[in-house]
Amino acid sequence: MNQSFDIAVVGATGTVGETIVQILEERNFPIADLHLLASSESVGHSVPFRGKNVRVREVDEFDFSKVQLAFFAAGPAVTLSFAAKARAAGCMIVDLSGALPSAQAPQVVPEANAQALSGLSQPVQVSSPSPSATALAVALAPLRGLLQIEQLNVTACLAVSTQGREAVAELARQTTALLNLHPLETSFFDRQVAFNALAQVGKPDAQGHVPLEKRLVTELREVLGMPALKMSVTCIQVPVFFGDSFSVSLQLAGPVDLKAVNAALEAGDCIELVEDGDYPTAVGDAVGQDVVYVGRVRHGVDDTSQLNLWLTSDNVRKGAALNAVQLAELLIKDLL
Amino acid sequence: MNQSFDIAVVGATGTVGETIVQILEERNFPIADLHLLASSESVGHSVPFRGKNVRVREVDEFDFSKVQLAFFAAGPAVTLSFAAKARAAGCMIVDLSGALPSAQAPQVVPEANAQALSGLSQPVQVSSPSPSATALAVALAPLRGLLQIEQLNVTACLAVSTQGREAVAELARQTTALLNLHPLETSFFDRQVAFNALAQVGKPDAQGHVPLEKRLVTELREVLGMPALKMSVTCIQVPVFFGDSFSVSLQLAGPVDLKAVNAALEAGDCIELVEDGDYPTAVGDAVGQDVVYVGRVRHGVDDTSQLNLWLTSDNVRKGAALNAVQLAELLIKDLL
Q: Mean pLDDT across the stretch A152-179?
C-alpha cells in the first residue's frame, strides 16, 4: 500500500468534524484524497484544507470503497446508518458518536489503553470516547498503578460546545439579550443557561442518571480497564463556550503521597500539571491545547485517604477531534 | 422591656447588609430605631426602610449602647474592631463575618442547630455561617438521623455576588467587553471569570485548601453536630451573578432508600424538593427565595451506598441575610 491514504470525515461541518480536518492538516496526516461528508442540509458548504476549500458532499451518496478510513463525527443516528456500509466496503472506522458497541468498536484513549487496538478484526472499528471520558482517562491513566481507588466522584462542568453549534449560539444570544435587558428566549436548552448552572444535561432515566453521565461511567471503566470502578458523576452545564472542567475526588484504600501523585502526573502523557497554588482554567489554558491540564492536587480536609484534582480540557479538540486523529495515526502506523 | 427593639446593621451598604434591612422590613421585625452603619466611604448613602431613606452613619462614631442588637455584615476586620465594644455596651450580636471563635459566638442555622442558642452568656453573640455552610446545613439537617455518612463530597459552584459588589460588576464588565470584542480587563478576579470556571476562590494554604473551603468544613461540622465528618470540598467560581449551586455526593455505611430520603427532605424545614426528573437552578428557582432547593436525588451509578444531590440557594438572602434575621428573631423571642 502507498504511503498516503484516502480519508472521509462524516459530519465535516460540525464543530468536531471541522476540528478533525484542521488537526489532520496540522499533524500532516498522510492524506491523498480527503472526502468531506454531511447530511443534505450541509451540502454546498466547504471546509478549508491545505489552502483549498474542500466541498462537502452528501453522505448518502458516498461510495466508502473510495477511502481506507472514515471518521464518524455526526452523531449516533448517522453512524448507525452508514458505519456498516463503510465497513462492508473495507473502510476502517473511527467513531465519535458512541453508537457502536464496545465488542465491535472498543473505546480507546491512546494515553490510557492503546493496547486495545491490537488484534482487532479487519477492517478495524474503534470508538473515540466522549470528551469527558477522554479527559478523565488521560489524567487518571498514570495514577492507576499508584492508587487503590475505592470510589471516584466527578462533577463535570461542561462547555456548551459539547452540545454543538446551536448551544454555542444560544449562550451568546441569551447573554446579549440579558445584558441589553431584552426578554430571554430559550430554544436549545430547556431554560436560561446564561449566568446560570444547569444541573442536568439531557433526560434522566428511572435512576436519575442522564445518558451523558452513564456514557462517561461506561467509557471510563473500559478505557482505564477498571470495570468495577465505583463512580458518582454529575454533569452540569455551565455558561462557558469551550473547555470542560472537572472537579474530581478519589476515595482511596489508604493514605496517598501527594509527591508521588505529582510525579506520576508529571510523567504522564499529554498532561500539563499546574502546581504551587496556581490552577488551570478552560479559557486561560485548555482551549486550543493538546494536553489535559491538572491542578489543585490535594488531600481531602483532614483526610489523607482522599485525593482531589481539578482538570480542564478542550472538549472539542483534546476531548474529541484530536483523540480521534491520534487513533487514526495508530491504525495506519502498521500500514505505512 | 418594651415590644420593639433598637437595631444596628453594620455594613448596611453591602449586598448582604442591604438585604438584611429589606428582610427586617418584610418580616416586620419589631424595630423602634434602625441604625445603619458603615465605613467612612459609605457615609452619606442612605438605604430605604419602611418608606423612608435611612442615612448611613460611620460605625467608628456609633454608641452601641443605643441598640439592643447589632448585625455585623461588613467583613472580619470590622467585626474584630467593633464587636467587643458593642458587647461591652450590652448589645447582642449576630455576626456574618466568621471572625468570632465558636466558643464566643456559636455558628447557628435555625433549621439545623437552634438549640445551640440556649444557655449562652449575656449579651448573646451568635455567628451566621457562610452561605455555603448555611445552604448545606439546611439540606442535610433532616438527613442526619436517617443516614450514616462516612464521607461528604461537595463541589460548590459559587455566584460572584458571594464576593461582593465589585465581583458582580466585574462579571458584567468582562461579559460586555467580550461580547463587543473589546480587550478584557481583570481587577477583582485574578483572571477572566466571564464564560469561564475558576477552580480556586482565594489563596490556598500549604495543603491546597482555600479559606472558603476550610470555613465551610469547620462551620458545617459544627452546625450539623458532626465534628468528625470527613469532607472533600472544592469551591469554584462560576459566571453566575446570584445563587450558589452545590453538587453533593455522600458515601454511606450501607444502601440508602431514596424514598426515605425524599420523605425526610419533604418534611425538612425551608427545603423545596424538586422531583420527577426536573431540577432546580440558581436563576430559575433559588434567587429571591427563602428556601434551599434540592433536586437530582439519586444513588451513585451501580452503587446504592452513594447518595447524590443537587442544591441551589440564594447566597445573599437564604445563605446570609435571612439566616441572620432568623437568628435575631430567636434571640429576641424570649425578651418579648
A: 94
